[in-house]
Amino acid sequence: MAGKVRENLEIPRAGTVERDTFVRDVARVLLEAAGEDDKAMIPRTEQFLGGVVHYLLGRIHDRPDQPVVQAVWRGKAPLVSLMHGLLARQRETMGDSAEALRRWLDGLVVECEAGKYNPMAARAFSAMSKAQPRQAALILDLAERTLLREMGLPA
């Protein structure tokens, strides 16, 4: 079952290669249903979604005030709704403005660095912030459609 993220597995500790591989696998599994038209955007979207997963794990699970208990992966459902909420909130508050998207991503980079989240999150957000506005919009659109499909909603 290589490349598949099974349920009821322990989430690897932060800062390990195993965590990075785990997060990459989550992003890949989410993008498995991407259509032929989206193939060119899959690598960049995978990087972005991986960054979002690292960001959320850093913000929620890896905080120093959290008890040191190994978290268990219960499946994509809880994480997918958090990811979609993050992206939907960005769209609601900032619309489709390329400059607003860039400011949001740059703010996430600052938060990731200040919170000492996995550096892959900051790199993913920074790369998307530096992308051409049209490309960044396509990546964000594919990410949102992927998450909506995963939640069983029309994309």
- Percentage of β-strand residues: under 5%
Q: In oligomeric terms, what are we looking at?
A: single chain
Report the count of strand segments.
2
Termini gap: 27 Å
Note poorly predicted spans.
1-5
Structural class: mainly alpha
Count of folded domains: 1
In round numbers, the mean pLDDT is 83
Number of helices: 6
Please write the string of helix (H) and strand (E) elements. EHHEHHHH
| Shape, per Cα inertia axes | globular
What does the largest sheet look like?
2 strands, antiparallel
**Helical fraction:** 55-70%
Main sheet: strand order: 1-2
The rounded Rg comes to: 15 Å
Brief summary of the model shown:
The chain has 155 residues and is mainly alpha-helical. It has one domain.
What would your notes on this structure say?
There is one protein chain. By secondary structure, the protein is mostly helical. The protein has six helices and two strands. The two termini are 27 Å apart. 28% of the residues are buried.
Structural topology:
Elements: E1 9-10, H1 17-31, H2 42-61, E2 72-73, H3 76-94, H4 98-114, H5 119-130, H6 133-150
Antiparallel strand pairs: 1-2
Helix pairs in contact: 1-2, 2-5, 2-6, 3-6, 4-5
